[in-house]
Amino acid sequence: KMSHVKLKKFLLRYYPPGIILQYERDGVMKQKPVDLLDLGPGVDIEALCSQVIKQEPLVSENRRPALRQLMGRLLEKMAETQHHSFSLFKVLRAHILPLTNCAFNKSGDRFITGSYDRTCKVWDTYSGEDLFTLEGHKNVVYAIAFNNPYGDKVVTGSFDKTAKLWDAYTGQLYYTLKGHDTEIVCLSFNPQSTTIATGSMDNTAKLWDVETGMERASLLGHKAEIVSLNFNTTGDLIITGSFDHDSRIWDVRTGRCVHTLSGHRGEVSSTQFNHAGNLCLSGSIDCTTRMWDVRSGRCLSVKQGHTDEVLDVAFDAAGSSFISASADGTARLYNTNTGVCAHTLIGHEGEISKVAYNPQGTRVITASSDKTSRIWDTQTGECLQILEGHQDEIFSCAFNYEGDFIITGSKDNTCRIWKAATATSQLQHEQAAASKGTTGML
């Protein structure tokens, strides 16, 4: 029989621009995203509405006025003045022993730190309070992540060969994920928060069920340690990067290797999918970044220009640009469509180990061994601000979802939180807490 489907409501998604369709199928509420990655100031809204109506069975012609209005709201958000003038908000002396990593939840009201002291701590960003300590690992806690966008779970990966899944609000341990033969050095939740991937020095990655804590698959094929892994947006593919010079794309459902991406002449340091999931990047110590076609596994281009190892690569939220960061102290910003290097970001006096876009794609932050982070304008390539104060190299940097708070983690054993002069997210958080309200924005 025909299943009964009814569109219930539209939700906005600011970054990357899109609309989430909430619909009911046979009495069950579901969601489907409609990406509007090309939306921008010059775009013909009516043509875009027509395209969505034509391609999306859930959206009929009589929804055109609503669609038009939503696109208008997305354009307004894009036209807002960019957050600027970041200043030091908090210095958090997180652990006695060295920090390994730090990460925000989606809104940025909480963050986590991992350490050589074998713990992970959960923090309140705005109060600077250490909410609780996740204890139980028997060695260094190296890789950590929230299950964004939800933010109700944390996974920690350790040199003790295990990963642990925790409740982000109570600190309760759900599961210990046992199976790797050596240290776990990278991990990730899929965007649906149903699967955890862990990558290890034992040359394998493993997939685990969030619901049960059971191992779902072991991804076998790499000949050296796996140092990078990322899911695509839909969560059905994962990319791994290895010291064997290759990256591999795997089918999450079956655990099978779909493509081996060979071509680099040195260890792969970093990998990422774009939002649409048709492209992926790999950066290598061979000084190049490669872009690959996900469907065919073909190398589309090799980006040269760095004079030393590429240590990190990233796409912006919409996938229209990407960046490579290098031990040569520069970062190179590329237009995805044309492949042109639009800007070389010059200014750091030491290697750049980490790079991150703000969700709007208008800013990039770089973390360097010269003890500074820099904020750059992606349109002009100019350095807008230098974040100074750390006493040792910075290995971690990130924006929150609104793009008005930044976190940096350093070998000086502090995390620093930086706040834009224009920041709004803290106020919104406090107002929501005061009214005990939950916000309906995605």
Please specify the SSE layout and strand pairing.
Layout: E1 5-13, E2 18-25, E3 28-35, H1 45-55, H2 64-79, E4 86-93, E5 99-104, E6 110-115, E7 120-124, E8 130-134, E9 141-146, E10 153-158, E11 163-167, E12 173-177, E13 184-189, E14 195-200, E15 205-209, E16 215-219, E17 226-231, E18 237-242, E19 247-251, E20 257-261, E21 268-273, E22 279-284, E23 289-293, E24 299-303, E25 310-315, E26 321-326, E27 331-335, E28 341-345, E29 352-357, E30 363-368, E31 373-377, E32 383-387, E33 394-399, E34 405-410, E35 414-420, H3 425-434
Antiparallel strand pairs: 1-2, 2-3, 4-35, 5-6, 6-7, 7-8, 9-10, 10-11, 11-12, 13-14, 14-15, 15-16, 17-18, 18-19, 19-20, 21-22, 22-23, 23-24, 25-26, 26-27, 27-28, 29-30, 30-31, 31-32, 33-34, 34-35
Helix pairs in contact: 1-2
Describe the oligomeric state of these chains in a short phrase: single chain
Number of beta strands:
35
pLDDT < 50 stretches: 438-442
How would the global form be characterised? Answer: globular
Sheet with the most strands? 4 strands, antiparallel
Radius of gyration: 21 Å
The class by helix and strand makeup works out as: mainly beta
Beta strand %: over 45%
Distance between the termini: 33 Å
Spatial order of strands in the largest sheet: 4-35-34-33
Query: How would you state the average pLDDT, rounded?
Result: 95
Give me the number of helical elements. 3
Helical proportion, percent range = under 10%
List key phrases describing it:
mainly beta; four-stranded antiparallel sheet; 3 helices; disordered C terminus
